[in-house]
Amino acid sequence: MLNFREAIPSDIPQLLLLEQCLVDAERPFNTAIKPGNPTYYDIEDLVSNDNACLLVVEESGKIIGTGYAQIRKSKDSLQHEFHAYLGFMYVDPEQRGKGINQDLIARLISWSKNKGIHDLYLDVYSQNEAAIKAYEKVGFEPCLLEMKLKTT
């Protein structure tokens, strides 16, 4: 049985390990990721911040999925003053295809709406077709493509 809940401080060691699983999964999409164990997130802040909701999915006491929504100030050029940014979207590879990511996103959307936020954004590597399909399935659509150039 899966248990969806907000992360608590005692989850941080497991979350740090899952963050490295996510980094490793994204390495094929970005050769600029530092070797070793770079970090993407301030997990302690996400756990304690009232403007963020870090969810975990547990199975038999083990965290098998994560995702957060964080309220952020939007660019002045946009109609909405604030938006929710989704990140740390990760489901254990053995658990994928079971709708866990969709359920996580639905819960994060609900949290965002309860905070009065109706515009949500996330980043995904353009080559990560499986993730793009998963996000499109719940209603996300491409908005901005970031491009990079490394000169020699």
UniProtKB/TrEMBL annotation:
Database matches in PANTHER family: AMINOALKYLPHOSPHONATE N-ACETYLTRANSFERASE-RELATED-RELATED
Signal peptide feature range: none
Source organism of this protein record: Leucothrix pacifica
Keyword terms of this UniProt record: Acyltransferase, Transferase
Pfam families, A to Z: Acetyltransf_1 (PF00583)
Keyword set includes Nucleotide-binding: no
GO MF: acyltransferase activity, transferring groups other than amino-acyl groups
Domain N-acetyltransferase: start-end pairs: 2-152
Alphabetized InterPro entries for the sequence: Acyl_CoA_acyltransferase (IPR016181), Bact_Acetyltransf (IPR050832), GNAT_dom (IPR000182)
Key word Signal present: no
Name by which UniProt lists this protein: GNAT family N-acetyltransferase
